[in-house]
Write a structure and sequence with these properties.
homodimer; alpha+beta; 2 domains; two-stranded parallel ribbon; 64% helix; 15% strand
Chain lengths: 185, 185
């Protein structure tokens, strides 16, 4: 299992964006499971789950990693999947959805840490815009890294993503000013 | 075990910066180990390793997580330690060292991905300066998050760190221009 897998191709993002498959990947984060276990956990019959697992396997997101009794054990191909979708019509609604979820989580972290937003909704909207802008503008480098097959660990991924944000500093300056006005540090 | 632990306090960073202790933490990333196993792996006697483990335990970086035979098993308290040291004389040389290592790794990732630097040494120096600037200027928020005890997972940590870089966009713009000139995208 790799530490990090960056997913940019719309076809793969599409595979991920289906609800049951997304759930299966989440479950496999805890530990490898058999079709039987997955089937019970997601509440769908084994044939359906098997089909989803095969789709995930074909997309390189899941792999057989052994057996338990007579059943095959499936695991994730990476501990961390980083979804950095190329903007593409077929995944646009999923992209918007996860940017929304991520903006929400981020505002939540700031709040739990005692950093208050003057206007929560405005802050969330701004963060979503920024995440979108960064994702779209980072594509050339992200794709190069992803296609090169370089194995990154989590710390290297941090640095890489931070660098991508940093590289867009000039373009992001105005939005950064706005965000600073919206939070009390 | 938590996913992420952010370490800002100079005393804890100092604990981490000692070579054998750093090695012990790296070894425990793979799996929990006994003093005996650690002692063999680092090539030091058990008493020395025991003392180091106790220092790590006191700093909250290592914990007892069970026993193997008659021996205690020690594990990390988090899968990922993020060192964001407050600038402090006592850890300054370690800070400079890890910024150096991180800058080196980042240039390496870019190169392996086919992104060439026109002047490798200049790029490394620039990245190190940027990492330093970001780390120092992020302290107020990083400390708040770290002290609040919020449990972050890796993805949340990504977003948080990216946001901290983003917030400094206006200040970083000039350096971003320089870096863009140094790499071929």
């Amino acid at each position: 299992m790799r530490e990090v897998l960056i997913i940019t191709e719309p076809e793969k993002v599409k595979v991920l964006s289906e609800e049951t498959r997304f759930r299966i990947l989440q479950l496999l984060r805890q530990r490898p499971m058999t079709i039987w276990e997955l089937s019970r956990a997601v509440g769908k019959d084994r044939t359906t789950v098997y089909r989803h697992v095969k789709v995930l396997e074909k997309a390189g997101l899941v792999e057989e990693i052994g057996t338990e009794g007579n059943e095959k054990l499936y695991g994730r191909t990476a501990r961390l999947f980083l979804i950095k979708a190329e903007p593409d019509e077929s995944v646009e609604s999923f992209r918007q959805l996860y940017l929304q979820v991520e903006a929400e989580r981020l505002v939540g972290i700031l709040e739990k840490s005692g950093i208050r937003a003057k206007n929560r909704e405005k802050l969330k909207k701004l963060i979503k815009e920024v995440l979108n802008e960064i994702e779209v503008n980072s594509q050339p480098i992200i794709k190069k890294v992803s296609e090169s097959g370089v194995e990154l660990d989590e710390v290297e991924l941090f640095h890489l993503l931070n660098t991508l944000v940093f590289l867009q500093s000039c373009e992001l300056c105005e939005k950064a000013k706005k965000m600073r006005e919206l939070i009390e540090i």
